[in-house]
């Protein structure tokens, strides 16, 4: 392609970007300008392409990228005012006020006629002056606090208070900058070598995290001082608070390099990831190599794996393929193979959750293997690990192999089924099951139970597995007996919710449930046995009779909730699945009557729903569980990295929120706060469930209470995602109602709705045939037009005002009232919108409908519109009043009906305005 052709394409992409920008499609604008930059590397407008993309990034609040693009634009075209101004705006948002002020002054010097620049310069001047004073004060505070915190001769309480103050100072940009310059990072490094008070050491680590937060420059300087390995030294602790603080610090550093932040749903910036790839790779590689470090604590190991898991997904740091390259699977599999029974000097320390956390990480890696070759490499690495273990003649290594296969069966069933089908593997598992050794029996039993989860993919093991489980159930060892019980429960639940399928004899399922219940509530049973009992109930509670029996058992329910509140990941699946079943929160297949008749004709099986799964029974169970404290338990478990488990949690919370009277309890117990992250980091179905739950909360409860602080902005995107044509009408309606309440809050919320492209999505539902959807959308628009930015959008060349005019004629009173309300606001703020009232061909008929409306509320709003039109200009007033509208106003002004007193007052006001413009007299003469 010639240079001329490339330049032509570059200009075309620039025009496309301009069009997207005008339509508030900021992401589309960025993509188009990026293509223009790639095509026009030698184009004379290249500086313009960069500064235009900077404008789009500014709208997306990607301020670091704004600065970068403005820098490139200014390199090509020095002192260009728009590039300088945009860089100033971005630096202001980044807290770099001095740099912003310098650029703003330069813009002002170029063009002193621009009043907006002048006010911006004055505003920044005030901030810079104040900051200079604050900096001096903050410097004094920092110096004083540092002296107190790091002086070992001072009382412990004084030092703890000083370190807490340092942490508070680090949360502000000014404080973080001064702390970094004062050498506090090196002081913290030295302090942590001998500090004994936990509060001081934890706050010192958190201070480093805050210094690195939201600043790539500070992060680089911190790493120059202390280096990446230092974090792994201080991570090696058995104190949960300290480990959590270091874990958060490592993630903060990754966020700084990748452009992610602590906001829910935050995603990395591709350009920043590319620029800082070596730093990100160094940190994550060090994390991977530390997984199997034998000298670190179990808590530290779990924290390392959790950080890796958090950054694997394609919408995070997309690290799955890299993990395969550096054989990270081998290290995770080694964690999965660790057993308390086999301890030696080179053994790794693990927690009860370690193997579960490692399995979740393996599952996340497999989920991100997007094509067959990657999956083959995944399977090859698992094969390699198992073969190496099998080459060792020690029986211990054979046992570890079975434990690893169990983990693979739970996280990548296809791979697990392939492995267990290898020659000799199945025979080894079955031999262990028939052994007299309790440990061998236990690991074999766990493997068979894991295979039961997907019986169609593990037919080889299941053909003999059930008989072995029955034999093992008669073991005298409770740990074997409960595992065999779970396997039998899985087999017994193969009929699902279909009441007509009974794999076992009548009453057998209830007997299995009773056995699980005894293990669950029996005093003195360890957590491991109780966890397995919960797993058993997870399968048996597909049976409606078991659901009812269990919900009546207060002790069993409380035991489940208490177990959940521990937050241990190894208990997660069984407990949450049980809750899903009790609430009937699983997907239900819609059975059409026509299909039933067809099935009968073809003599196919027809699923039957149990009478105890009727809506009244379900709601009763949900209420009982909520009263028992299920929400708190779900909140504790929601910190998992397993997306499938998150989906189950979202399903249960949504089922609870389906009952209006329980929504307040969900908010009180932290359910709304837990739901928000689930809307962004979950399966697609889980995101929908979580967003619907938030919609339901937003309808019933004041958003200022339900979504306090920043959450009232963060909840907007999930609600807008519910406005999808493929979603159910109920989901659309609930989202619109919640958005309506949010839009009534303040202009900041309205601005966010617009920025997220909400106006266009909401307007789609104005044309819906479904009355409730059309009405709800109109009500949201009525609240959104209180924003001046929305008014400007209505003023531009489009049919938005015309469509609202037509909605005023709807038979549905609430729809007409919302449309008239929106027009009343628009016409009060905009002469252009007043002019647009006359664009419909039937404009006079619309005014007639508004003035003579049977609804007092619609009529009142309609007359406000008339008054606004008369006041907007003499020309429009004359056009309106040169019709029979004047007669309608006269008649209404004399109407004795007290129910229309407000309308009568506005009508009188309209006539007074007409008199001032001498339009009443003129109209009378025309009439004569």
Write the topology of this structure:
Blueprint: H1 3-22, H2 26-39, H3 46-59, H4 63-76, H5 81-93, H6 97-110, H7 115-149, H8 156-170, H9 173-181, H10 184-191, H11 198-212, H12 216-226, H13 229-235, H14 240-258, H15 270-275, H16 277-290, H17 298-310, H18 320-325, H19 328-337, H20 354-367, H21 372-391, H22 395-411, H23 413-420, H24 425-433, H25 438-452, H26 459-472, H27 478-492, H28 508-521, H29 527-540, H30 544-551, H31 554-565, H32 572-582, H33 593-601, H34 615-628, H35 630-637, H36 643-657, H37 663-668, H38 671-678, H39 684-700, H40 703-706, H41 711-714, H42 716-721, H43 729-743, H44 747-755, H45 758-764, H46 771-784, H47 788-795, H48 800-807, H49 813-829, H50 831-836, H51 843-851, H52 856-872, H53 874-881, H54 885-893, H55 901-916, H56 919-927
Helix pairs in contact: 1-2, 1-3, 2-3, 3-4, 3-5, 4-5, 5-6, 6-7, 7-8, 7-9, 8-9, 8-11, 11-14, 13-14, 14-16, 14-17, 16-17, 17-20, 19-20, 19-22, 20-22, 22-23, 22-25, 24-25, 25-26, 25-27, 26-27, 27-28, 27-29, 28-29, 29-32, 31-35, 32-36, 36-39, 38-39, 39-43, 43-46, 45-46, 46-49, 48-49, ...
Q: Can I get a quick summary?
A:
The chain has 928 residues and is an all-alpha fold. The protein is built from 56 helices and no strands.
What would CATH call the class of one domain?
Mainly Alpha
Look at the structure and give the mean pLDDT.
85
Number of helices: 56
% residues in beta strands: under 5%
| CATH architectural name of one domain | Alpha Horseshoe
Describe the main β-sheet briefly. Answer: none
Give the strand tally: 0
Oligomer: single chain
Helix content: over 70%
Secondary structure class reads mainly alpha
Question: In angstroms, what separates the terminal alpha carbons?
Answer: 75 Å
Shape: globular
